[in-house]
Design brief:
Blueprint lengths: L17 H18 L5 E5 L15 E5 L1
Antiparallel strand pairs: 1-2
């Protein structure tokens, strides 16, 4: 939390390590292909967007909104 009591979001697309970018793109493409106009957004959460994912250990935590 910051000084005002707000939760700090330490996740950002720019922090995603290159090793995970291909699977993130595949997830995005698959969601767009199958959900089309029903897709609102795809959120990636957890260690990967925080830049601390470990290859071979980390999974892709996501929330898909339709």
């Amino acid at each position: 939390m910051d000084d005002e009591g707000f939760i700090i979001n330490d996740a950002h697309f720019n922090k995603i390590q290159p090793v995970f970018l291909e699977v993130i793109q595949e997830i995005k493409d698959t969601c767009c292909q199958f959900l089309r106009d029903d897709l609102h957004s795809v959120y990636i959460r957890g260690s990967i967007p925080r830049g601390i994912g470990i290859e071979g250990v980390a999974d892709v935590d996501m929330i898909i909104l339709v």
